[in-house]
Amino acid sequence: MPKVVDPEARRRTVIDALFRVVVREGLQRASLRVVADEAGLNIGSLRHYFASQGELMDFAMRAMRDRVSARLERRVAAAGDLAGLPREERVRLVTGLLEELLPLDERRRAEVTVFLDFNGAARTNPAFRPLAHEVATGTRRLVHRALARLEQAGALRPGLDAGAETERLVSLLDGLCLNAVLHPEVLTPERCAAVLHAHVRELTRED
Amino acid sequence: MPKVVDPEARRRTVIDALFRVVVREGLQRASLRVVADEAGLNIGSLRHYFASQGELMDFAMRAMRDRVSARLERRVAAAGDLAGLPREERVRLVTGLLEELLPLDERRRAEVTVFLDFNGAARTNPAFRPLAHEVATGTRRLVHRALARLEQAGALRPGLDAGAETERLVSLLDGLCLNAVLHPEVLTPERCAAVLHAHVRELTRED
DNA sequence: AGCAAGCTATCACAGGCGTGATAGAAAGGG
DNA sequence: CCCTTTCTATCACGCCTGTGATAGCTTGCT
Predict the structure, then answer these.
(1) DSSP structure class, residue B157
(2) Is A21 on the interface with B (CB under 8 A)?
(3) For A167, which of B123, B171, B195 is closest by C-beta distance?
(4) Is A131 part of the contact surface with chain B (CB cutoff 8 Å)?
(5) CA–CA distance, B83 with B85 (Å, rounded to integer)
(6) Which residues mediate DNA binding here (chains A, B) (predicted)?
(7) Are A97 and A174 within one domain?
């Protein structure tokens, strides 16, 4: 009966425009008017799909989380059951999974940039806090499981506390993201990956 | 001839108010009117000491940098020449210096919070970029020197690349700051310090 | 054809922002 | 005392923001 537009697709183009604006000019510049312009839409049209600014932001950030976590789960699934794999293969797979969290190409760079801005905003914006908290615990769980899988294979150096190492690795990854996004000329993707590799190598080194 | 107010002191009270606002409500909420209210000043009065918003921000961020770097230099000076000190003493001093960069008490927590917001803004605000870059290279230099001092004492594990370890330690510190500020309930000051201690211990461990 | 629902486009309003301009108060030096 | 400089306090302007309201267009079903 109505028009022929797919609302799902429309919302996707809008939040893609939002992400472009956030990456280019920051979250605080992502007003309804600016995003609408970026999407080539009229603001009234945009508001037909997102009743309010809060709704837009909420939808966008959930979409971002879904996109990333889908990629991570795909990667985990592709790795399959690690049981029976040789030690080096496990280390390689786990490292690849952790690399997925770093801004090593343009796509991941954009995602990480948005996440950083969003997390920063979540500190003072109560509306963002639940999702930010969820993402934080989600990555912790992922990293913890990654370390646990190494431990199961006996690939982890003995005497390491899994909890403490999780915290260390999570903070290292976040710090790498931060520096790679804010100072890309000093922390290039190559150096970024190299630091992660060195860290994992140290965790899995046998004495 | 004029009034009796010390402009230096006035500016300090203003930027202290600014810092309080940034910590409590974020950098983007730190408008001239809000900061003036927080300082108990009229906006016109505030503008007598800071001609524009840019000037206020610039002054505030430089003041923050000066405050932190002064504390760091004091600490370095207090440590004095490390030559001749026993290995464990060196490690202890270096660890203490690095702890100065973490939000382990309210003062450092406020500083780190402001710095994170400021750095985030610097990504898209050209006016902030020079100072943000300077701070970033400054911490790198500090961390690099700290590691070098350990190396001089033979306290560093052999086979470590100083440059790579600097990058790793800087990112770890930044990540710890980020998580401690954004998720204080999961990364408490104690855990934060513990992670740093574990890292330094690992760097200085002999096999 | 015509109705209804989905969609696009605009207008208006209130509120916050930085800033230029300006007027008045305060206070020490002549 | 008064004059000059510093300081405080307000007003107004233009811009941008989110949002409520509304009118008009498009499209497909009956």
Answers:
(1) P
(2) no
(3) B195
(4) no
(5) 6
(6) 31-50
(7) yes
**In this complex, which of B26, B29, B123 lies closest to A182 when CB atoms are compared?**
B123
Instruction: Give me the CATH number covering residue A32.
Output: 1.10.10.60
Do B36 and B121 reside in the same domain of the chain? no
Number of domains in chain B: 2
Confidence of residue A83 (pLDDT cuts 50, 70, 90): confident
Chain B residues in contact with A128 by the CB 8 A cut-off are none
B54 touches strand C (CB under 7 A): yes
B81-91, pLDDT tens digit by residue?
877 888 899 99
Looking at the fold, whether B178 and B157 belong to one and the same domain comes out as yes
Question: Are residues A122 and A152 located together in one domain of the fold?
Answer: yes
Rama region for A84: left / alpha / beta (φ>0; ψ in -120 to 50; rest): left
Whether this prediction's pTM lies above 0.85 is answered by yes
Domain containing residue A146 = 60-203
Q: What is the distance between the alpha carbons of residues B198 and A168, in angstroms, rounded to a whole number?
A: 9
> On chain D, which bases lie within 7 A of the protein's CB atoms?
4-11, 16-23, 26-29
